[in-house]
Structures are given as structure tokens and as C-alpha cells.
Amino acid sequence: MLVFLSGCAASTIDSAVQKGATALNTQDIFSLVSNNTLHLVSSDFDAYLFFSENGALSAKSVVANNLDYGSWDIKSDDKICINYSVWYYGDVNCYTTYKEAGKDQYLLFTDNGSLAYSASASAGNSKHLKIRSKKETKTVFVRSSLSKGETGESVSSTSNVSAPAVEPVVTNSGSGATQEEVKHTVKHMAQDCPGCNFEDGDLRKANLIEANLKGANLRGVDLSRANLRRANLEGADLSGATLLSTNLPGANLKNANLSGADLTGSNLIRADFTGADLNNVILDNTLQEGAKGLK
């Protein structure tokens, strides 16, 4: 059934438009999903999602029968954004939505124009999925405005589900380099810098997705709120490091030294801590689903 459904749908936005599909705007998307259930299907995904009006998301896999929760929102450029708690490493993914010609079927496309899901909708919580509450943030999103009866045009085009990444900064007062020079160096080095020395550096909010920091010296470094999704930190020295609310889903921390490190509030979903030194590590309020090597 999965192969059949995905095979019938247009594989790109261009092919969908050629077949008469029409794009949904922010109001259309809100009307489609808010307080309703979508059945999303692809070659390797089959799940029901209930979109609570307050932005909470409940999901149930048809094949594996497992549950997940998360949040959803609508960007002002006519895209729906989905953020699972566990699935897809907790990443935020946004999609352009089209309605197929002459059908009550929908197509969700990624930013590069390729088909992500075929979808059908049903009113209300048709699969009776368990609902978790979601606290509203201070950021004004399109969904929030639409739920209050406002128009999407009144929302700033800069509104997004997640905050933009901040370039990493490392303090190195003894080098003679200016702060901007250090900032520029770290920006280019940290993505591929195995064995490098960042001891006591300031890497707060650094965007280090899939960075190669194997064996790096990160003793005492501040990586609070940095994005290290799927980063390679194998054998790295993170002793005494500060990682408050750091994003580490899928990160490789095999044989790393995390003694005395503070990971309070961090996302450790599917991270691998096999063989890591976890002596006196702080793991309060962390997400640990699927993580390996944690006691």
C-alpha cells in the first residue's frame, strides 16, 4: 500500500502542478490541519497526526504502532512545520502543501521541491490520539495569529518555529586576534576540526550540525544551546564542559570524556555514549529516548 500511494503521487512540485495540483496558503493550511487529523504516507512512513489548535502535535505510527508527540506551526511563507519529540531526531521540518486536482488528497513537498508525503485529512481527533498540552511561547507565529482570527499577512515574515542559529564565538585573549577574526576562524574550523583545541572556549548557540570534532579538546567549553545534531565527538574531551539545553540528537560521543559536564535540559535522543566517561555528569531534564551507553 505504501509503495502504491507514493507511486501514484507526483514526485516533484513541477510534476504536481502539471497535473493540476494547487498550492495552499497559510489560511488554507490552518483550515486543513488545525484540530484535525492528517494521515501522512511515504515509502518509509505511515502515521496519523493530530494537530491541536494550540500547536501541540500527537502522532501514531500505523506500522510500528508507537507514539510520539511534538509541536507544529505555520511559517509566513506558506509552509507547515512539524517538530516531533523523538522521530527524525527531534528536528524541525517544513513543507509546502498542495491539493491534488479533483481529489481530497494533499501533497507535502520539501524545500528542494521533492515529495515528502501524500496526505489525507479527517475532521477532529479521528484516531483518538492522546493529547499533551503545549505552552505558548512569546514568539508570534502564523498559527497563533490565525487561531485568534487574525490574517496571515499581519505576521512578520521572519517568524519561524525555531530561532536562527548564532555564529560560534571562542574567546582566546592571548592570541592577539580580534573577536571578529576569532569568530570567523571558528565558523570555518569547527565544522571539520578533529583534534583541535577549543579549551575554555565560548561556543554558545554555535551551529555545528554534523561537525567533525573527533578527539577535540573541549575541556571547560561552553556549548549551551549549540546545535550538534549528528556531530562526531568520538573521543573528545568534554570534561567540565557546560552543555545547557544543547542539541545532540544522533551525536557520536563514543569514548568521550564527559566527567563533570553539565548537560541539563539537553536533547540526547539517539546519541551514542558507548564507552564514555560519565563520572559526575549532570543529566537533569534531558531527552534520552534511544540514547546508548547511559546508565
Describe this protein's structure.
The protein has 295 residues and is α+β, with helices and mostly antiparallel strands. The chain has two domains: 2-154, Lipocalin, CATH 2.40.128; 166-295, 3 Solenoid (Pectate Lyase C-like). The protein has helices spanning 2-8, 13-18, 26-33, 142-147, 179-189, and strands spanning 22-23, 36-42, 45-51, 56-61, 67-75, 79-84, 92-99, 106-109, 115-123. The protein has an eight-stranded antiparallel barrel with strand order 2-3-4-5-6-7-8-9. The chain is elongated. It starts with a helix and ends in a 106-residue tail after the last helix. The model is unreliable at 1-7, 136-140 and 152-177 (pLDDT under 50).
Helices and strands in order, then pairings?
Elements: H1 2-8, H2 13-18, E1 22-23, H3 26-33, E2 36-42, E3 45-51, E4 56-61, E5 67-75, E6 79-84, E7 92-99, E8 106-109, E9 115-123, H4 142-147, H5 179-189
Antiparallel strand pairs: 1-7, 2-3, 2-9, 3-4, 4-5, 5-6, 6-7, 7-8, 8-9
Observed structural traits:
Pectate Lyase C-like; 295 residues; alpha+beta; 2 domains; Lipocalin; elongated; 5 helices; 8-stranded antiparallel beta barrel
Rg from Cα: 21 Å
Q: Output the strand order for the largest sheet.
A: 2-3-4-5-6-7-8-9
State the low-pLDDT regions, or none: 1-7, 136-140, 152-177
> What separation lies between the terminal Cα atoms?
40 Å
| Overall 3D shape | elongated
- What about the largest sheet? 8 strands, antiparallel, barrel
Count of discrete alpha- or pi-helical segments spanning 4 or more residues: 5
Average pLDDT works out at: 83
CATH topology call of the largest domain: Lipocalin
CATH architecture grouping of the largest domain: Beta Barrel
Proportion of strand residues: 15-25%
Give the SSE order as H and E letters: HHEHEEEEEEEEHH
Strand tally: 9
Q: Give the domain tally.
A: 2
* Name of the level-1 CATH class of the largest domain: Mainly Beta
**Helix content percent band:** 10-25%
Which class of secondary structure composition applies to the elements? alpha+beta
